[in-house]
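Thread amino acids onto this structure.
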């Protein structure tokens, strides 16, 4: 069970992101990641990819996504697979690597359909 204060931090960070207060959102997600919340690493990765509340840093985003995957986040695996599938954000296209992470996403229970990418 998650501590209530972590849920409050997550709610505040999500709200801040929704209204475009990226500095506050980045701070909240950073705090949550320091507490071990995998979804926060995924959120930070997206912010690094877009330069929201921080400078654009695709290698840092990929590192955060990998760490979130290691912590069991299926959506992070999907996002990582998509980056390598497209070769987006300055990262090299690697279809084998992409397929691997689509399979991991499915195994971790990601709700997004990955079948077209792994069959």
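Threaded sequence (119 positions):
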């Amino acid at each position: 069970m998650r501590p209530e204060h972590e849920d409050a931090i997550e709610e505040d960070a999500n709200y801040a992101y929704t209204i475009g207060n990226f500095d506050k959102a980045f701070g909240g997600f950073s705090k949550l990641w320091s507490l071990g919340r995998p979804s926060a690493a995924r959120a930070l990765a997206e912010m690094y990819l877009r330069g929201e509340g921080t400078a654009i840093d695709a290698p840092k985003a990929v590192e955060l996504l990998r760490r979130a995957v290691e912590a069991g986040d299926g959506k992070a695996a999907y996002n990582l697979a998509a980056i390598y599938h497209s070769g987006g954000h300055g990262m090299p296209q690697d279809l084998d690597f992409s397929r691997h992470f689509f399979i991991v996403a499915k195994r971790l229970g990601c709700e997004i359909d990955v079948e077209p990418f792994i069959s």
